[in-house]
Write a structure and sequence with these properties.
This protein is of the alpha+beta class and 279 residues long. The chain has seven helices and 13 strands. The protein has two domains: 2-112, no CATH class; 127-273. The strands form two sheets. It has a seven-stranded antiparallel sheet, covered by helices on one side. The chain has a six-stranded antiparallel sheet with strand order 1-6-5-4-2-3.
Length: 279
């Protein structure tokens, strides 16, 4: 594991520099003895859940600029044996196996990634849809939250924008800065609402996420219609209220510099998946 771990550290340092220019990806040969499975696990420990771009010498023919094509383009026909990929800010990160005269060699690839939101948002896009565009996220199939059961146990419906975001993204974090509270998920907790009863409509606070510097991101639940619940942030005893729901707040957290979050000044946005809910 020592060789692989050292290479993981090398790759991570390489992602912290200037991003590669278009059509000039960086291909890094792994040291002899690097295990691909360990490399995927090591990169995934901070980049999140990977996508399979090539397996068994078969390259996914549906790949586009948005879904990881820049990671496979550097390799000729029959050359790429395996490739796993992640979208990470303004670059693509990948690792895999490449055919060579001396047998398969393990490589890491860092490639240019266009800003997924460059073309803007289509008219009528939901907040979940806007977050998909901002992050370039493509939903991964897997188990979904049983919302009727969750809401029955909590004694109230939950806002529709939040449920749609969870259904699209699952458990994980945006820009490694903020993570959703997802029932059954390994990120913010299997049961983020343990101890909350059926009297939330009286105006109590209910958590829906957590950021790096906020102690909590919550809803103010006083409105009869949960879709009208507004956001409250709490940090070290300070409380701030926003006249918007969770979906709008996340989009603003990523894009609105006046809101003051460091993510609004990032060169690009991404979502780190913690995997599907664990039911």
């Amino acid at each position: 594991m020592g060789t692989t771990s050292a290479f993981v550290d090398t790759v991570r340092r390489a992602t912290e520099g200037n991003p590669p220019v278009r059509d000039r990806p960086v291909i890094m040969d792994a040291p002899d003895g690097t295990d691909l499975h360990e490399l995927v696990a090591g990169l995934g420990s901070w980049a999140g859940r990977h996508r399979n771009l090539a397996a068994g010498a078969f390259v996914d023919p549906s790949l586009t600029e948005r879904t990881g094509l820049p990671l496979v383009e550097p390799f000729g026909a029959g050359e790429l044996l395996e490739m796993r990929g992640w979208g990470h800010r303004n670059r693509w990160l990948g690792c895999g196996l490449v055919a060579s005269p001396h047998g398969p060699r393990t490589v890491a690839v860092i490639a240019h990634r266009e800003d997924p939101a460059f073309a803007g948002f289509p008219e009528g896009a939901s907040w979940a849809g806007k977050l998909r565009i901002l992050t370039g996220w493509e939903p991964v199939t897997g188990p979904r939250v049983d919302w009727p059961a969750v809401e029955a146990g909590l004694g109230t419906r939950l806002p529709g924008d939040y449920k749609e975001i969870v259904d699209v993204f699952g458990a994980g974090s945006f820009d490694e800065y903020f993570e959703l509270a997802v029932p059954g998920g390994p990120g913010a907790g299997r049961n983020p609402w343990q101890g909350y009863g059926p009297d939330l409509a009286s105006g109590g606070l209910l958590p829906w996420g957590r950021s790096e510097h906020e102690c909590g991101l919550l809803w103010s639940t006083g409105a009869t219609d949960p879709d009208e619940w507004t956001v409250v942030t709490q940090s070290e005893g300070d409380e701030q209220r926003f006249d918007c729901g969770a979906g709008e707040f996340i989009v603003r957290m990523l894009t609105d510099v006046q809101l003051g979050y460091p993510t609004s000044r990032a060169s690009g946005h991404f979502f780190v998946s913690h995997g599907p809910p664990d039911f």
